[in-house]
Structure formats: C-alpha cells, structure tokens
Amino acid sequence: MTLQLRVYVPPHPLIQHGLAIVRNTATPVALFRTAAIELGRWLTYEATRDWLPTQEGIIQTPLENCPATMLDTEVPVALIPILRAGLTLSEGAGSVLSLASVYHLGIVRNEETLEPSFYLNKLPEQFDPQTRVLIADPMLATGGTMMAAMAEIVKRGADPANIRIISIVAAPPALQKLSEAYPSLNIYTAAIDEHLNDRGYIVPGLGDAGDRAFGT
Where are the domains of the chain? Predict the structure, then answer.
C-alpha cells in the first residue's frame, strides 16, 4: 500500500502501555476509559509538535525580563470528537489543548452496509482557514466515518494541511482512502493493524471502542 499522507505511530512507552490496556478483553470499563483518555493526551502531545503557532515576547520573571515563546492565541484551535467513542480521546486531548473550541460530530455506521450517517452536527458555519483542527476518533477502520467527517469539515473552510487526526488503531482501508482524498493530512495513531473482518472491524483491534468505553 502506497500512502501519500503522513501517518505517525509514536514509539512512546506510555502510548504502547495504554494500547495494551485497551486491547485486552479483560480490561474493565473504568480502566478502559481511563486508558483511552490517557492515549488521547499523549497522542495529542505528539500531534501538536510543530503544528501550534507560537509567538515571541518578553516576560517579567521575579528577577528580570527574559524572552519567552508562547502560543499564538490569535490562531483558532478546534477539537472535534467523533461521537461516541471520540469523547474519551477528546477528554485527554482537551487537557493539552485547553484553549481549543470543541465541536461535536455524531456519526453512526450502518452495520449492514457499513455506510456512515450524521445524527449530530455542531460544527461552525465557517472555519477560518488558519484554524488548527484536531479530530479524535479511536478507530479508523473502513474509513467511511472519517471521510464523511473530513468532507463536512473541509466544506466549511478548514484546510486539510491544518487538520490532524488522532486514533488508537488504524487499518489500511481507511488510510488508503484518506491518502487519496487528502494527501496533506497528518494522522497520529497508537497502531496500524493488519486488516478488517467481514463486519468491518479492525483485526486484531480492540473491539467496539464506544461500547467498551461506556459499558453498553
């Protein structure tokens, strides 16, 4: 598989440990949710390297003035969790991006056709093209859900080059579709798994992330 977009699997021990916890079928709901939140935090930390604009200034320490680098708060930052399962990742991501505006997208996949449909859309009418957009969705499987989300976000003015996705597990079909449609996109994931089964689930994967996070 040839990919144009940039896919990063950070070799961080905390990310790999969290991945092991969420993969384990014996992990209880509370621990699964906690591990997913932590994965959202660490993946966001990795995804925001060289991505958030900064500005130089002078600050006053208790002893004297000194130069400082700070976030450029004039550039908007948007955090978009894909409901339901994206809520766990976004909770961790929000602890890193404390100044971000949060916009929710509810997308459900038909289990027969695997086609996505929206049941909630809280995106703004228009994004500033400079907006840094972080999308949180634990599973990139067939790619249908993320392709629908990307189309809606880009339609409202977001620049794909300023969009980053965090996920726990990604699969080749989703990465291939996203690569062909959005070559400037960046994805940060804890693992790239082998394939999908006949129900569109990632193998080995971790099961249904939403059900496991919320005990349903």
Answer: 6-214
Decide if 134 contacts 93 (C-beta within 8 A).
yes
β-strands 77-83, 132-136: how paired? parallel
Mean pLDDT score, 54-63: 95
Vertex 78, ends 114 and 205: CA angle to 5°? 35
Amino acid at 98: S
pLDDT at 110: 77
Say how many C-beta atoms besides its own lie within 10 A of residue 141's C-beta: 25
CB atoms within 10 A of CB 68: 13
- DSSP state for residue 161 in the 8-state scheme: G
152 Cβ contact list (under 8 Å, min separation 6): 105, 118, 121, 123
Q: Which among 92, 126, 90, 94 has a CA at the least distance from the CA of 106?
A: 90
| CA–CA distance, 75 with 213 (Å, rounded to integer) | 33
Distance, in Å, from the CA atom of 86 to the CA atom of 184, rounded to the nearest integer, reads: 22
3-state SS assignment for residue 185: coil
For residue 98, the Cα-to-chain-centroid distance in whole angstroms is 16
Residue predicted with more confidence, 113 or 50: 50
- Does residue 194 have a pLDDT over 80? yes
- Judge if the upstream peptide bond of residue 183 is cis by omega within 30 degrees of 0: no
* 6-214 under CATH 3.40.50.2020, yes or no: yes
Which residue, 166, 153, 91, is CA-closest to 122? 153
